[in-house]
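Hi C.,

You asked whether I'd gotten around to modeling the 161-residue construct. I have! Everything is below, sequence then structure, no commentary in between.
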Amino acid sequence: MQPKAQPASEPSPAKQVAGFIGKFDPKVAKLIRAARAALRKRFPTANELVYDNYNFFVIGFGTTERPSDCMVSLAANAKGVGLSFYYGATLPDPGKILLGSGSQNRFIRLKSAADLAKPEVEALLRAAAAQAKTPLPASGRGRTIVRSVSAKQRPRRLDLN
């Protein structure tokens, strides 16, 4: 079965994502790109579900195309980038690095993509993948799927005036 071709008027998901990231200040955009690359390397078979919403630009890494199957997400706004664990409230967190108090989601703030390689963060990434309802495919490469784009958005750059 042939993959469905993009309509000529619609940019590819890669171009769309590059445009979304390009809205940010260079420092935040660089962090988004580096963290995305590190997570893509860590979870090569995961699908990337992309949302350019009102409050945040989000890239979820999931085992299927369903948002509820996302293990982790990058969430960015003008102030910076966070790593969100969709089912973070149930993850073991001996280092007490997870933030948030909701019934499900937890997150950490990323200062750099190198934070993803810290042992306590790596342990959370492993645990998030292990608790996924649907396991990651053993081979292949995940797809990038632009799920939604909000017409109205908060500014993606800080106004320093």
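If it helps when you're writing up: Helices lie at 13-22, 26-42, 119-130.

Thanks,
B.
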